[in-house]
Amino acid sequence: MLKINKVLLLFSNDSVKKGLADPDSLKLLLEEAALKNSENIEIYISYARSLSFLITNNKVKIRDHRNHMNLEDYDFVYFRKAGSAMQQMLTCALYLKDHEIPFFDKEIVNTTSRNKLSQMYMLQRRSVPIPKTLFCRNNRRLIRLVSERYCDDFSFPIIAKATGGTRGDANYLVNSIMELKQILSNEHRHFIIQEFIPNDGDLRFFIAGGLKGIIKRCSIKGSHLNNTSKGGSAILVDVNHVSNIIKSDALNAAIIFGRDCAGVDIIVNKNNGTHYILEVNRAPQIEHASFESEKAFWMINAIQKIITDFQPHSEKKETYNIFGRFEFVYIILSDNVEHRLVAKVDTGADSSSLHATNIRVEDHKLVCEINDHEVRFSDFVEKKVKSSNGLLQHRYLVSIPVKIGEVIYNMKVTLTDRSGMNYDMLIGRRFLRTNNLLVNVSLRYIASGKKKRK
After folding, report:
1. Which of 17, 42, 82, 266 places its Cα 20 to 30 Å from the Cα of 301?
2. How many helices (H) and strands (E) does the chain have?
3. Residue 20 sits in which domain range?
4. Cα-based distances in Å from 184 to 55, 132, 194
5. Where does a domain end: 282, 309, 336?
6. Do 119 and 19 share a structural domain?
7. Same domain, residue pair 264 and 330
8. 336 and 416: one domain?
9. Is residue 252 domain-resident?
10. 341 plus 219 within the same structural domain
11. Are 22 and 113 in the same domain?
């Protein structure tokens, strides 16, 4: 039986209302052309308002509620009109690219991220930690998603904030579904839902050609907002008192958006020490803000260094990050000690895996032993993985910090007993693709040590 290819025509709602597009007419024309050419194509129509986005550190789900399908269920997507929903279209296009599903037009993936939805996905796809996030332009559907479909992911209190809000504007701590209904009925803009992270303040990383300074902001009593514009207090923090993993994530977050100058906001869960990127602001506020003179000094220092180092006529050779057939990997566990092992780089494997024993779930946490060290994970997901012998296995997927060479990655790995294998870790192509890495199979330890010819 011939496969029927499912093609989605995706429109923004405002483009149809303004008469800039006619979905039904286009669908009819394409169906007639497919029939005439004996093509097994089935055409679907949907709109930005009909999509919902669930983005967590371990999973992403884009749902087309109009056709009761997930985005990856389609064989091709035609972004017919984006309009005011461009950030949704950008998120969809990046998701399709990551899942190797073709679409028109590739130009969309070059669109600049301008709201919290696309920003969260762009961080997640590079394994930078973010809070659980949910978005839908249809507020009634958004309420149902919070209360029903994704209730396990979002327990109250939760955060509701406008997708384009700044400086704590339209940012609410919501304690019940009734409160959420009231907020969404009073506001005439689109909102994003995120899990609430219990905290003692957040950290603003001031980046200008590198990390220049860190400011800790704390809310006033009775408010969940740490913004100084909302009355919060601020103090300078010694950069040496912040862990290298958090500083690395702050710098990587700015790099992801190509921002040489950025204000990266990070919040740390006061109960378990887990950190999350809240936002990557372009051109952080200097004037009329806390520590004006310090920020001005940081900026002048960065500008002067760039002027001094700038070489306008030098030819820069394009470089690539390259891994060898094997690499030394340092696993960073909760004791902050780096545990070294040798990883095999396998482009034939989709996901990465790590040797672990005594794997079990206790009190809603995943517990296992890695390198004779007990490790507990609060965030984990169970997934099916095809092993090297072709059999499907149920494994747990977690994110774990690893250092390869001078770079610290948050690598997503499945945990499994690899005692019968030669190497404790296997690095798959999903990690390589996400971090723009190439593999030279004729060499070993390129990124992590001395090059050795096979």
Report:
1. 266
2. 9, 30
3. 5-195
4. 21, 19, 15
5. 309
6. yes
7. no
8. yes
9. yes
10. no
11. yes
Q: Cα–Cα distance between 365 and 437 in angstroms, integer?
A: 32
d(CA 445, CA 289): 47
- The SS3 assignment for 86 reads helix
Residue with tokens 């996030």: 133
Provide φ and ψ at 309, rounded to 5°: -85, -10
Distance, CA of 5 to CA of 136 (rounded, Å): 27
Q: Is there a domain that residue 399 lies in? A: yes
Residues 55 and 148 reside in one and the same domain? yes
Q: For each of the chain's 454 residues, which pLDDT tens digit applies?
A: 678 999 999 999 888 888 888 999 999 999 999 999 989 999 999 999 999 999 999 899 999 999 999 999 999 999 988 888 999 999 999 999 999 999 998 899 988 888 899 999 999 998 899 999 999 999 999 999 999 999 999 999 999 999 877 777 889 999 999 999 999 999 888 999 999 999 999 999 999 989 999 999 999 999 999 988 889 999 999 999 998 889 989 999 999 999 999 999 999 999 999 999 999 998 888 998 889 999 999 999 999 988 887 766 555 454 568 999 999 999 988 766 788 999 999 988 888 999 999 999 998 889 999 988 888 888 888 887 776 666 778 899 998 889 998 888 889 999 999 988 889 999 999 899 888 899 998 889 888 875 444 4
Q: 94 and 109 in one domain?
A: yes
410: which 2 tokens? 């948050």
Q: Is residue 314 part of a domain?
A: no
Residues 304 and 347 in one domain: no
Q: Which residues of 377-399 are buried (b: 16+ CB within 10 A; e: fewer)?
A: beebeeeebeeeeeeeeebbbbb
- H or E element in which residue 408 lies: strand 407-416
User: How many angstroms separate the most distant Cα atoms in the chain?
Assistant: 71
Cα separation values, 214 from 187, 211, 298, 408, Å:
34, 8, 11, 20
Full-model pTM: 0.75
Query: Coil, helix or strand for 123?
Result: helix
List, as one string, the DSSP characters of 336-386: -PEEEEEEEE-TT-SSEEEE-EEEEEETTEEEEEETTEEEEESS-EEEEEE
Q: State how far the Cα of 72 lies from the Cα of 101, in Å rounded to an integer.
A: 7
Give the strand order in the sheet containing 5-11: 41-47, 5-11, 76-81, 103-104
DSSP string for 422-446:
S-SEEE-HHHHHHTTEEEETTEEST
Task: Tell me how many domains the chain contains.
Answer: 3
What CATH number does residue 111 fall under?
Answer: 3.30.1490.20
Choose the final residue of a domain: 133, 167, 195.
195
